Fold:
Amino acid sequence: MSNSTGDKPSTPLHSVSVAGAVIREDGRMLVIKRRDNGNWEPPGGVLELDETPQEGVVREVLEETGIRVEVEQLTGVYKNMARGIVALVFRCKPSGGEEHPTSEATAVKWLTTDEIKKDMGEVYAIRLLDALEKNSPYIRTHNGKKLAPKN
Structure:
């Protein structure tokens, strides 16, 4: 990639996304089955330029699930090394709304931790499981499918 002078850009270009680890009082966590790839994932998406990370989480969770949330705290930073995507994950609690399929999600469910471990790919399951821990935020890298070994 080069700019108008033919030089390489001085800084790398990353995409920033946000996701909500929405935890109900009974401990179940909100997940969506994505319409575009069929994966079970926490609700989230690309952070817009004019919004804070917390505003982005609230917007994305509502758009994808019909659930309104209150953002509690950052629980993890995850980088897809293959695609240059940095994901910020926030623990949230539901504050209203009714879950329903949307233009981005064919299904919306509240899963137990055992169901999360069984039904979700590890790079997405870990984002929800990390949010349950008190010693967050975690910082992890992956290649889109597998977590990188811890240093």
User: Anything to note?
Assistant: The CA atoms of residues 74 and 114 lie 23 Å apart.
